[in-house]
Automatic annotation (TrEMBL):
This is Mitochondrial ribosomal protein L16. Belongs to the universal ribosomal protein uL16 family. Gene3D superfamilies: Ribosomal protein L10e/L16. One of its GO terms (biological process) is mitochondrial translation. Keywords: Ribonucleoprotein, Ribosomal protein. The keyword Metal-binding does not apply. Residues 222-251 are annotated as: Disordered. PROSITE patterns: RIBOSOMAL_L16_2. It holds the Pfam family Ribosomal_L16. NCBIfam families: rplP_bact. The lineage of its organism: Eukaryota, Fungi, Dikarya, Ascomycota, Pezizomycotina. One of its GO terms (molecular function) is structural constituent of ribosome.
């Protein structure tokens, strides 16, 4: 039994063969170069912006503008053609809207109003949106300065807020009465009169709210009806050119 097993093992060993090693081995450097080219990522364009989960926000109280450039005082643009832009809550659930005459509000006043809201809502889960940007440079002269000698030097940034414009919006897990109280305190810090509005409130055209049957088409229509017999046709350009001159002679 032992002899047969030993013979079978001997036959198995004889059947084994060792292959000869190749004379030349592939270059290791060339293999590494090929692997690096395969794993190398595609080139990133120079104008591509790196991904970031945080939204890039500029400072709403001080824009990136040239301070040395003199700016005129100017006036806020009041929409007289029927525009309702900026008079409704767009991003949040509640808003702070001006009901007074247009004003120029400084960045310091807006910062105080923002800090007042944050102090009142400390510990609450919310997000505050700013609808205005302080992009107007205010240049003033010193006290007891004689007239003339230029406009003055840069003093602070400000923004022009037209009538019935939304300045601040808020959205979050906060009770409405708490938000009302926070916006009331912020309105007390700002110049002018302010009101609390909610999302879905009617828009405003000038000083008129579009509610209780008031529509934009009704505001645009003429206030006085003119009868058809009083209307005169507008002369065509050819008729005007052929008309005689003031002395009866042709032009």
């Amino acid at each position: 039994m032992a002899t047969s097993s030993s013979m079978s093992l001997l036959g198995a060993f004889r059947g084994l063969s060792i292959a000869a090693a190749p004379a030349t081995r592939p270059s290791l450097g060339r293999c590494l170069a090929v692997a690096s080219r395969q794993q190398r990522p595609s080139p990133i364009p120079s104008n591509a912006r790196a991904f970031s989960a945080t939204a890039a926000q500029a400072n709403w109280l001080e824009p990136r503008m040239e301070r040395k450039k003199k700016m005129m005082k100017g006036r806020p643009r009041v929409a007289t053609g029927g525009s309702i832009k900026g008079t409704t809550v767009a991003w949040g659930d509640y808003g702070l809207r001006m009901t007074d005459h247009h004003r120029r509000i400084s960045a310091q006043q807006l910062k105080i109003a923002e800090d007042t809201i944050k102090a009142r809502l400390r510990g609450e889960k919310y997000r505050l949106y700013k609808r205005v940007n302080c992009d107007v440079g205010v240049f003033v002269s010193g006290n007891e300065m004689r007239m003339g000698k230029g406009k003055g030097s840069f003093d602070h940034w400000a923004t022009r807020v037209a009538v019935n414009q939304i300045v601040l919006e808020l959205k979050g897990m906060v009770h409405e009465q708490i938000v009302r109280d926070a916006f009331r305190l912020a309105g007390n810090k700002l110049p002018g009169q302010w009101e609390f509005v909610k999302k879905g409130a009617p828009p405003v055209v000038g000083m008129t709210k579009l509610w209780k049957g008031v529509t934009l088409e009704e505001l645009k229509r003429p206030r006085r009806k003119v009868s058809a017999d009083k209307l005169q046709p507008v002369p065509s350009p050819s008729t005007t050119s052929e008309a005689p001159g003031p002395l009866g002679a042709a032009p």
